[in-house]
Amino acid sequence: MPSIIISKAGIKELATIQKLGRETFYETFAQHNSEEEMQNYLDKSFASEKLTAELNNPDSQFFIAWEEDLPIGYLKLNSGKAQTELQDDTSLEIERIYVKSSHHGKKVGQILYDKALEIAQQEKKKYIWLGVWDENLRAVNFYKKNGFVEFDKHIFRLGNDEQTDLMMKKTLG
Protein backbone atom coordinates (compact mmCIF):
# COMPACT_ATOMS: atom_id res chain seq x y z
CA MET A 1 0.00 0.00 0.00
CA PRO A 2 1.34 3.47 -0.85
CA SER A 3 2.24 5.61 2.14
CA ILE A 4 -0.31 8.00 3.62
CA ILE A 5 0.72 11.65 3.98
CA ILE A 6 -1.10 14.04 6.34
CA SER A 7 -1.04 17.73 5.46
CA LYS A 8 -2.53 20.72 7.18
CA ALA A 9 -5.36 22.22 5.12
CA GLY A 10 -6.09 25.87 4.60
CA ILE A 11 -8.52 27.92 2.55
CA LYS A 12 -6.90 26.80 -0.72
CA GLU A 13 -8.08 23.24 0.08
CA LEU A 14 -11.73 24.36 0.47
CA ALA A 15 -12.94 22.38 -2.58
CA THR A 16 -11.05 19.25 -1.47
CA ILE A 17 -12.47 19.40 2.08
CA GLN A 18 -15.94 20.11 0.71
CA LYS A 19 -15.89 17.15 -1.71
CA LEU A 20 -14.28 14.79 0.82
CA GLY A 21 -16.66 15.87 3.58
CA ARG A 22 -19.78 15.39 1.48
CA GLU A 23 -18.55 12.04 0.10
CA THR A 24 -17.45 10.49 3.39
CA PHE A 25 -20.47 11.70 5.38
CA TYR A 26 -22.80 10.33 2.72
CA GLU A 27 -20.97 6.97 2.58
CA THR A 28 -21.13 6.65 6.36
CA PHE A 29 -24.71 7.71 7.06
CA ALA A 30 -26.87 7.57 3.89
CA GLN A 31 -28.20 4.07 4.55
CA HIS A 32 -29.58 5.23 7.93
CA ASN A 33 -31.28 8.45 6.76
CA SER A 34 -33.66 9.68 4.07
CA GLU A 35 -32.12 11.01 0.87
CA GLU A 36 -33.83 14.39 1.40
CA GLU A 37 -32.48 14.80 4.94
CA MET A 38 -29.00 13.73 3.81
CA GLN A 39 -28.94 16.26 0.97
CA ASN A 40 -30.22 19.06 3.23
CA TYR A 41 -27.54 18.26 5.82
CA LEU A 42 -24.77 18.07 3.22
CA ASP A 43 -25.85 21.34 1.60
CA LYS A 44 -25.82 23.18 4.94
CA SER A 45 -22.79 21.55 6.61
CA PHE A 46 -20.52 21.66 3.60
CA ALA A 47 -21.64 24.98 2.11
CA SER A 48 -18.70 27.06 0.86
CA GLU A 49 -19.49 29.96 3.24
CA LYS A 50 -19.64 27.68 6.29
CA LEU A 51 -16.42 25.82 5.41
CA THR A 52 -14.65 29.10 4.59
CA ALA A 53 -15.51 30.42 8.06
CA GLU A 54 -14.34 27.15 9.68
CA LEU A 55 -11.08 27.09 7.69
CA ASN A 56 -10.43 30.74 8.64
CA ASN A 57 -11.17 30.18 12.35
CA PRO A 58 -7.85 30.23 14.24
CA ASP A 59 -9.32 27.79 16.81
CA SER A 60 -10.05 25.13 14.18
CA GLN A 61 -7.55 22.99 12.29
CA PHE A 62 -8.09 20.73 9.28
CA PHE A 63 -5.79 17.98 8.06
CA ILE A 64 -6.15 15.91 4.89
CA ALA A 65 -4.92 12.34 4.47
CA TRP A 66 -3.44 11.78 1.02
CA GLU A 67 -2.54 8.57 -0.77
CA GLU A 68 -0.30 9.87 -3.53
CA ASP A 69 -2.41 12.72 -5.01
CA LEU A 70 -5.75 11.27 -3.88
CA PRO A 71 -7.45 12.76 -0.78
CA ILE A 72 -8.79 9.80 1.21
CA GLY A 73 -9.79 11.28 4.57
CA TYR A 74 -9.70 14.30 6.79
CA LEU A 75 -9.59 15.48 10.38
CA LYS A 76 -11.13 18.57 11.95
CA LEU A 77 -9.98 19.72 15.40
CA ASN A 78 -11.44 22.51 17.53
CA SER A 79 -10.10 24.29 20.59
CA GLY A 80 -11.44 27.16 22.69
CA LYS A 81 -14.65 28.77 21.45
CA ALA A 82 -14.64 26.74 18.20
CA GLN A 83 -15.57 23.59 20.15
CA THR A 84 -19.13 22.45 19.51
CA GLU A 85 -19.68 21.93 23.25
CA LEU A 86 -17.66 22.15 26.49
CA GLN A 87 -15.44 24.99 25.16
CA ASP A 88 -12.85 24.13 27.78
CA ASP A 89 -9.46 25.69 27.05
CA THR A 90 -7.75 22.61 28.50
CA SER A 91 -9.37 20.32 25.92
CA LEU A 92 -9.21 19.60 22.21
CA GLU A 93 -12.27 18.40 20.31
CA ILE A 94 -12.07 15.97 17.44
CA GLU A 95 -15.09 17.17 15.49
CA ARG A 96 -14.50 14.95 12.48
CA ILE A 97 -12.40 12.00 11.42
CA TYR A 98 -13.80 10.79 8.12
CA VAL A 99 -12.21 8.28 5.79
CA LYS A 100 -13.44 7.17 2.38
CA SER A 101 -15.05 3.72 2.60
CA SER A 102 -12.56 2.45 0.02
CA HIS A 103 -9.86 2.99 2.67
CA HIS A 104 -11.61 1.59 5.74
CA GLY A 105 -9.45 -0.98 7.49
CA LYS A 106 -6.23 0.53 6.11
CA LYS A 107 -5.25 2.47 9.26
CA VAL A 108 -6.08 5.90 7.77
CA GLY A 109 -8.38 6.73 10.69
CA GLN A 110 -5.63 5.71 13.11
CA ILE A 111 -3.11 7.95 11.34
CA LEU A 112 -5.54 10.89 11.53
CA TYR A 113 -6.30 10.16 15.19
CA ASP A 114 -2.55 9.99 15.93
CA LYS A 115 -2.22 13.46 14.37
CA ALA A 116 -5.00 14.75 16.68
CA LEU A 117 -3.22 13.26 19.68
CA GLU A 118 0.08 14.84 18.60
CA ILE A 119 -1.60 18.29 18.32
CA ALA A 120 -3.27 17.87 21.74
CA GLN A 121 0.09 17.03 23.31
CA GLN A 122 1.86 19.91 21.56
CA GLU A 123 -0.81 22.28 22.84
CA LYS A 124 -0.55 20.74 26.34
CA LYS A 125 -4.25 19.84 26.52
CA LYS A 126 -5.50 17.85 29.53
CA TYR A 127 -7.94 15.80 27.50
CA ILE A 128 -9.27 15.17 24.04
CA TRP A 129 -12.99 14.61 23.42
CA LEU A 130 -15.55 13.95 20.70
CA GLY A 131 -19.13 13.02 19.94
CA VAL A 132 -19.86 9.80 18.04
CA TRP A 133 -23.20 8.37 16.91
CA ASP A 134 -24.11 5.52 19.27
CA GLU A 135 -25.10 3.32 16.30
CA ASN A 136 -21.76 3.79 14.51
CA LEU A 137 -20.22 0.81 16.27
CA ARG A 138 -17.14 0.80 14.04
CA ALA A 139 -16.27 4.32 15.25
CA VAL A 140 -17.31 3.70 18.89
CA ASN A 141 -15.06 0.63 19.04
CA PHE A 142 -12.21 2.53 17.36
CA TYR A 143 -12.32 5.22 20.05
CA LYS A 144 -12.62 2.69 22.89
CA LYS A 145 -9.58 0.86 21.48
CA ASN A 146 -7.74 4.20 21.63
CA GLY A 147 -8.55 4.74 25.31
CA PHE A 148 -11.68 6.89 25.14
CA VAL A 149 -14.47 6.50 27.72
CA GLU A 150 -18.04 7.68 27.53
CA PHE A 151 -18.84 10.63 29.81
CA ASP A 152 -22.17 11.97 28.51
CA LYS A 153 -24.64 11.94 25.61
CA HIS A 154 -26.13 14.61 23.41
CA ILE A 155 -28.66 14.81 20.60
CA PHE A 156 -27.48 15.26 17.04
CA ARG A 157 -30.19 16.38 14.62
CA LEU A 158 -30.17 15.25 11.03
CA GLY A 159 -33.22 16.90 9.52
CA ASN A 160 -36.16 15.90 11.72
CA ASP A 161 -34.36 12.85 13.06
CA GLU A 162 -32.88 13.05 16.55
CA GLN A 163 -29.91 10.74 16.98
CA THR A 164 -27.94 10.07 20.13
CA ASP A 165 -24.24 10.83 20.14
CA LEU A 166 -22.02 9.39 22.84
CA MET A 167 -19.64 11.98 24.19
CA MET A 168 -16.28 10.34 24.82
CA LYS A 169 -13.01 11.63 26.16
CA LYS A 170 -9.46 10.54 26.78
CA THR A 171 -7.41 12.09 29.55
CA LEU A 172 -3.86 12.92 28.50
CA GLY A 173 -0.96 12.79 30.82
From TrEMBL:
Residues of the N-acetyltransferase domain: 4-173
Highest taxon above the source species: Bacteria
Keyword Ubl conjugation: no
Transferase in keyword set: yes
Coiled coil ranges: none
Keywords: Acyltransferase, Transferase
Signal peptide residues on this chain, from the entry's feature table: none
InterPro entries linked to this entry: Acyl_CoA_acyltransferase, Bact_Acetyltransf, GNAT_dom
Protein name: GNAT family N-acetyltransferase
